[in-house]
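Figure 2 data, in text form.
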Amino acid sequence: MKTIHLLIVFIFCSLIGASQSISQLGIWLNNANFVIKYHEDIVITSTTSGILFIDVSDPTDPSTVASIGSPGSFPMAIEVSGDYAYFGGGMTGYFMVADISNMNFPVQVGITYDIEGTAYQISVSDGYAYMATNMNMFYVISISDPANPTVVSSLDLGTFACGIEAWENYVYVGTTAGLKVIDVSDPSSPDVVSNFGSGYWYMDADFNNDRLFISKSGGFDVIDISNPSNPVGLFQGLSATGGGVICYQDNKVFLIEQSSVKAYGVDEDSSNLIDSYNSTITGQVVGLDVKDTVFYVSTVNAFHVLKLGVESSTSIIEADAEDDVRVYPNPFNDILVLEQSSSESEMNVRLFDSVGKLVYRERFYGNRIELDFSGKEAGLYHLQIDHDKKSISRTVVKQ
């Protein structure tokens, strides 16, 4: 029976005690995930077994719908523009184009191996793709013919390069020697016009406000690029380690560390840490992408769907409008409460861990039941409740 899930959040009228926190919505277990990219309810991820397309339209149940084989080595950079996805090689240098007009049946249409080194980000603008590599190289690639991507020019930056963003006639590259601003008004002759800072890695852009967000060891820098010839530092976001993939959206910055992900609020001249999450994450975090308040994180062990939401000093209660069953709090520490408001029918309760193993089973009678899971490990669980000839499923997180 199809059920309707409502999220009922009790918040004091004054909103005193309200805060934002990160929780997990779903998980997909797969070893060796790397870079990821969200596009139209699909997350594209590179793995050691190929490029996979994961359907996240139901964030609680991500599932693979398609794949493409990796040419030589799995990609470490992915970008999407229109009906095409672009991939930059990992251990083997290449630039590949795939037609994703049918996300359930993606097709490789073009590739060039005229690339030296590993790419970590790609930016696409006005018929060109821009890519920089760990071998100090910057590439301008014509993609006007997707079946025949062609390197138009290259430039030796003299330093390890990682993040990249393109806007109008300029490309911004994060390198260990700092931000390099490259004039590409003539694609056949790119020219570095300014340098700023040092020790930069991944980046994301807020071009509407002429800002770049660039990760570094210890957090991230926010840089004013209104004058590309003279970038100016605005403010910083501090982190224990930092240096990983960074995403900006709607005045929020998401940043991965080795074993966690952090969310920051940002305004014109400052940042503040909102929350940090690692309770269900195992293994090194390697990939990140964001859609609104839902964000996607890949690790060497799994793919996580997380959400930045608002909770109050009371609990967040999940209720089912049709079956009138409440499960709260979620996330929980040790005690999980089940409530029926309209009957005292028998409830058959089962709890499964993140790999589908049955770890708890019991039958109960009554309107309100407290389940003690203090002996269970922190992580994601699936709760199955059978009552009144109905079956109700919940995803719960033990902290």
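Caption note: The two ends are 30 Å apart (CA to CA).
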